[in-house]
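quick one
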Amino acid sequence: MLTVALTGGIGSGKSAVSNHFETLGVPVIDADRLAHQMVLPGSPALSRIQETFGDHLIDQQGKLNRGALREIVFNDPSRRKRLESILHPPIREAMEDWVEQQTAPYMILVIPLLFETGQEDIAERILVVDCDESLQYQRVSERDNLDESQITQILASQVDRQTRLKGADDIIENNGDLAALTEATERLHQTYLALSKS
Ligand code: ADP
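structure w/ adenosine-5'-diphosphate:
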């Protein structure tokens, strides 16, 4: 069984690509979605976040105030590292358990911060979705309603394009329309099916 880690900068098209892999019947797991599940009320990771960063992050229903947590860690590398040390081990474990359960020829692990968190060894291949920075700005501002300086800040917190491209086994260039993206994904699907047999 072949495992492929899918990564890319914000707004590069990771979700569009992974959604299409899913429609092709490929099992997909997403680290960001797992991270969400890890901090549901009553979870061990949420208790550790509360102990580490303070009770004010938890509301009366026991729910995490994500915005407040993001603000605490965003510009503070040491706090960010502490948060990662709480969340990443259980996320990684959940991914590894999930991989064990799959029976498809290959599977996709979407890990937006693959390089930033040093997880390059989690899968056999690394697929990078890449596009011009100007398109990232355009697509993210439309999707998330963020302004230019907010997007610049997020881009600065992620590895640069060249680092990502250098670490890639496969690259989907997403500078065209959605039809071109679908086509590129389907070509790669055939490649992965062939690779999984060899
Ligand atoms: P990511 O998951 O990498 O942050 P998304 O897949 O959510 O990126 O893409 C960002 C936004 O841009 C989404 O609204 C998506 O629908 C749109 N998008 C992605 N690729 C294209 C494309 N080739 N043409 C037009 N819109 C696109």
